[in-house]
Amino acid sequence: MVARIFPRWEFSIRKPLGKINLRYMKRSRLVTDPQEQNAPVDESCPFCKIAAHEIEAKIILEDQISVAFLDVRPLFPGHVLLIPKAHYSTLLDLPADLVGPFFINAQKLARKVQDAMKAEGSFVAINNVVSQSVPHLHVHIVPRKRKDGLRGFFWPRRQYQGEEMVATHEALSAPPKPE
After folding, report:
1. Which helix (H) or strand (E) is 173 found in, with range?
2. Are 136 and 166 in contact (CB under 8 A)?
3. What are the C-alpha distances in Å from 140 to residues 1, 14, 30, 70, 76?
4. So where are the chain's domains?
């Protein structure tokens, strides 16, 4: 339920995880409706269908640009996925004017997940192409507790060998190539 009470503010009442949550949001001047900005939609994408409410999902947060819902295969209870409503395959495809508002929602969700699940922290991650199970940008927000069984990242870490660190630094700090 969304009510417009003040000209520049709106607030919505949601019941995420069994609690009433009043969420105040400053209305953005951005064109945030996917239909208004002619944003892409992939008819076969399950996340696009969730954003369009064609597939049922346990929605935690929804605004003009994004939807957050419980992951159906969570690492832990409270594992939430945040997606843009428009179909962008990876973070690299997300328009610059949506990056800030989208990640403000990620920040709000990380706080909400941590508080609601009585977690000591959270793990926030994005896969771009590699290990991306659905080719629609999504941010994983996972509640974490010490000794929960996850060890840092899920893959082995290693030290740089020889001049590898210097070469990597040079490659990453070089000016970007023109597009």
Report:
1. helix 164-173
2. no
3. 25, 21, 25, 10, 11
4. 8-152
Residues noted as catalytic: 138
How is domain 8-152 classified at the CATH fold level? HIT family, subunit A (3.30.428)
CA neighbor of 69 nearest in space, from 83, 55, 58, 85: 58
The token duo for 73 is 């295969």
Tell me how crowded residue 65 is: count the other CB atoms within 10 A of its CB: 25
What is the spatial distance between Cα 170 and Cα 172, in angstroms, rounded to a whole number?
6
pLDDT tens for the chain, residues 1 to 179: 333 332 333 333 333 333 323 333 333 333 344 444 556 777 889 999 999 999 999 999 999 999 999 999 898 999 999 999 999 999 999 999 999 999 999 999 999 999 999 999 999 999 888 877 888 999 999 999 988 887 766 666 678 888 888 888 888 788 888 86
